[in-house]
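Hi W., the iron/sulfur cluster complex you wanted:
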Amino acid sequence: MSVTVFYFSGTGNSLVAARTLSARLTEAFVVPLAGILRAGKKYQVQTDKTVFIFPVYCAGIPALVARALELVDLSQTSYVAAIANCASSAGAALDIFAAELRRCCNKSLAAGWVIYMPGNYTPLYGSDSPDTITRTLRECDNRLLEIACAVNQGTVVDYALPMPLAMLTGFLWKINVSCFPYMQKRFKAERTCTGCGLCAKVCPVDNIVISSAGRPQWLKKCEQCMACLQYCPVEAIQCLWWTKGRARYRHPEIAASEIIAQKRMPEVNRIL
Ligand SMILES: Cc1cc2nc3c(=O)[nH]c(=O)nc-3n(C[C@H](O)[C@H](O)[C@H](O)COP(=O)(O)O)c2cc1C
Ligand code: SF4
Ligand code: SF4
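Structure:
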C-alpha cells in the first residue's frame, strides 16, 4: 500500500505533520502543493491512497490549497483523506475541503481529522511559551500515530459539521480569504531590514519583490501564510501595528530552506 501525502505549510507545522505521518505509513511520498501550483502542471497521483495536510485559515482552508486541487488528478487513487491543522478551532475546514475536492477532482473525502499545533497568526496573538509549544507538538505527534494507523487501515471517518453551520462558516471563509490578496498594504519592513531577501524567497506564491533600494515590496497575491513575517531573521516585518513586540512563531525544526523547497515542482515518486 502506498500513500501520497500532499501538504501546504506557511511556518512549518503542516510540513512536520506530513513528514511525521509519512514516517509511520508503509510507503509514502511527501508532495508540496505550492510546488504543483507554481509549476502549473497537472500532477497525477499513482498511489492507492492520498492524504492532504494543510493549516486552517479563517475556519476554512488556504485559498492556495483549493487552487492546487485543480491541478491534481486523483482518478487512480481509491482513498482520499484530509488533516486540518489548526491552533484552536478548525471550523468548517474539512467540509470546505471536501466540497473543493468534489468540485475539482470529482472525489469524496473518506476521512477527515483535526490536529492541534501552535498558532502562527501573530496579527492576533503572540507565540505560546516554549513549554506550551513542546507539549502541543508532543500531543500532536501522538495523535498523528493514531491517524497513521487509520490511514494504513483505510478507515472511514466522519468529519462533517451540521449543514447550516458548515454553510454559514463556508460563506464567511470565502469573504475572508477573498480579501487576503489585498492585505499586502498591511505589511511593511522596518528600518532594521537588512535587505537580505529571505522574505521573498520563503513566500510560497512569490508575492514579495526586493526593490532596487533593497527593501521588500508586497504584491497583490498574498495568502497570509505568515512565512515572510515569521522567517525574517531580524523580525523587521510588521503587519500594521498589530505585530509589534509580539513573540514570533515558526516550527522549531523547520529551517527557511525547507519552506523555500516547497516551491519546487515535486519529482514524481520521490520519498522525502
Ligand atoms: C491567515 C491565518 C488564519 C488562521 N485561522 C485559524 C483559524 O481559523 N483557526 C485556528 O485554529 N487557527 C488558525 N490559524 C493558525 C494556523 O492554522 C496554525 O497555526 C497552523 O498550525 C499553521 O500551520 P503551518 O505552520 O503549516 O502554516 C490561522 C493562521 C493563519 C496564518
Ligand atoms: S527577510 Fe527581513 S531583513 Fe531580509 S529583506 Fe525581508 S524584511 Fe528585510
Ligand atoms: S507575502 Fe508573506 S504572508 Fe503573504 S503569501 Fe507571501 S510569505 Fe505569505
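The pocket of iron/sulfur cluster (ligand 3) is lined by residues 10, 202-203, 205, 207-208, 218, 222-228 (CB under 6 Å).

W.
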